[in-house]
Amino acid sequence: MTELLSNFWASQWQGGKGAGTALFDPVLGDELVRVDASGLDLASGFDFARQQGGAALRTLTYRERGAMLGAIVKALQANRDAYYDIATANSGTVKNDSAVDIDGGIFTLGLYAKMGEGLGDRRYLLDGEAARLGKDPLFQSQHVLVPTRGVALFINAFNFPSWGLWEKAGPALLSGVPVIVKPATATAWLTQRMVKDVVDAGIVPPGALSVICGSSAGLMDQLQPFDVVSFTGSADTAAVIRSHRAVTHGSVRVNIEADSINSALLLPDEADEAGLDLLAKEVAREMTVKSGQKCTAIRRVFVPQAMYEKAAQAIGARLAKTTLGNPRNEAVRMGSLVSRVQFNAVQEGLALLKTQARVLHDGSTMPLIDADPALACCVGPTLLGVDNGDTASIIHEVEVFGPVSTLVPYRDIAHALHLIRRGQGSLVASVYGSDPAALAHASAELADSHGRVHVISPDVAALQTGHGNVMPQSLHGGPGRAGGGEELGGVRALNFYHRRAAIQASTAVLGLL
Ligand code: NAP
Is residue 157 lining ligand 1, measured as CB closer than 6 Å? Predict the structure, then answer.
């Protein structure tokens, strides 16, 4: 029997009472560890976090909480090698892809640690200036942002077991709100191990950070009006969360980061081909990093009709250089999907897209390096193409969560923008071109249906941070089918964990806030 991972619950390491669910190596097929949360006293864990963890965090100032985050960063950095080993074994990722999750998470946490310093020795924040309520300036209204006195429950997706925890926990803990994380079962090991290292280092007060691995059954039932829930995952599960009684009747604040059919757009009139080159490079990278298992990955690529063949060739040529297989082999650039379930889901999604699209670059016949095709959940990158983006409906609706993207020709910029909007709201679109006016116009047009617009012109080609890389300074989240959530965006992330209230009082009272 493999190890049964413990849950950190009510400040105690507690194993579940059941046999547990096994986590597997998606390349070798070995069972790695098991997780189980059955039999835990859920109510007491939530109460402990709410009362003990919340109270302890709220006694600290933002500066002190920032220092606490800084200490977490150090504890995590000291154990990076172990995290890389877990990611290789459990997520099937090559080193560079593991870094996106592990170092990306630590970097994001580091930014919030520094932010604490800037927010200073306060325990709540002022929101804007005081406003006069009448002719006499003595009686005014001052808005304040105070930490919510509940818990932050994170229900996370399988693709970012590290980043998914820390991009949420950074802002929550800095706000003074205790965290309960429920990682996706398939890759829960890395999240559990990181929490264990932080707990073992004695950095956070009891109740400030809890981890529960295994089934999510009953977690939502524990939520009370001042708690918040931040969910990342599929649109179907998001609908379950949104319709839970705690949300509909208790007004529990909920943030949803769901799936998204992100786009890349090559502007018309890019005759110099520099834009095409930048687009092809980025599309190939987005398709292959983490085997396309990124919520921000490019799923649809829009190019002017006249550039369609050239774009297919340029992207295909880059994809052909990908090497696929066992992430332990130095020659491999792209590892596997996280599980057999995901492998099957990608095959099914690909088959669905192919009913309306043809294959421009076929990854299905790629040989695997150092891996058994019967066992390894490896999928080669596949570029699809359609002739008519108006009639091909599925490419705008179905997110295949793997190394798959579809090339779509357009007539003019209005047509391209119309087709992109058929994604019904996305996390990110990237735009490629060299005319600043045309780039600015397209960005503003795309902004209402995207959380982020990433604009690549030749002058920033070497500086740009990547279409799919979520930088903590920028907003993450998108409207419509992307879930309607908002995360990160620098200090804006703290809003979700604070309550805003207006205090109407005399200037003398307001001056003491
Ligand atoms: P999922 O199946 O919806 O699972 C997400 C989380 O919800 C897991 O922790 C899962 O636990 C839990 N869960 C499942 N059923 C639940 C229920 N009835 N009540 C409460 N929780 C429940 O999604 P996934 O397959 O892990 O993730 C892939 C999807 O996430 C993709 O569509 C991707 O686009 C999206 N994603 C979005 C973002 C973003 O920031 N927008 C980031 C990453 C991923 P178990 O694992 O134990 O079932």
Answer: yes
Judge whether 257 counts as a catalytic residue: yes
229: CB partners within 8 A, 6+ apart: 152, 153, 154, 155, 220, 223, 241, 246, 247, 252, 253, 254, 255
Task: Of 64-68, 254-258, 269-273, give the lowest mean pLDDT range.
Answer: 269-273
Query: Measured in whole angstroms, how far is the alpha carbon of residue 320 from the centre of its chain?
Result: 28
Residues 6+ apart with CB under 8 A from 126: 142, 143, 144, 145, 513
pLDDT in tens, 476-508: 999 999 999 999 999 999 999 999 999 999 999
Q: Which atom of ligand 1 is nearest to the CA of 188?
A: 46
Positive or negative: CA dihedral 244, 167, 105, 382: positive
Task: Catalytic residue, from 257, 270, 445, 487: name it.
Answer: 257
The answer to whether 343 touches 377, Cβ cutoff 8 Å, is yes
CA of 158 to the centre of ligand 1 (A): 7
Which of 101, 158, 230, 424 to mutate for ligand 1's pocket (most ligand atoms within 8 Å of CB)? 158
Percentage of the chain with pLDDT > 90? Answer: 98
Q: In the chain, what's the furthest Cα-to-Cα distance? A: 79
**In the predicted model, is pLDDT for residue 269 greater than 80?**
no
**Confidence grade of residue 271 (pLDDT, cut at 50, 70, 90):** low
Mean local confidence (pLDDT), 22-26 = 98
Scored b (16 or more CB within 10 A) or e, 29-46 reads: eeebbbbbbeebebeebb
Going from the Cα of 237 to the center of ligand 1, the distance in angstroms, rounded, reads 7
Give the pLDDT score at 376. 98
Which entry of 213, 270, 295, 487 is annotated as an active-site residue?
295
Q: Does the annotation count 213 as an active-site position?
A: no
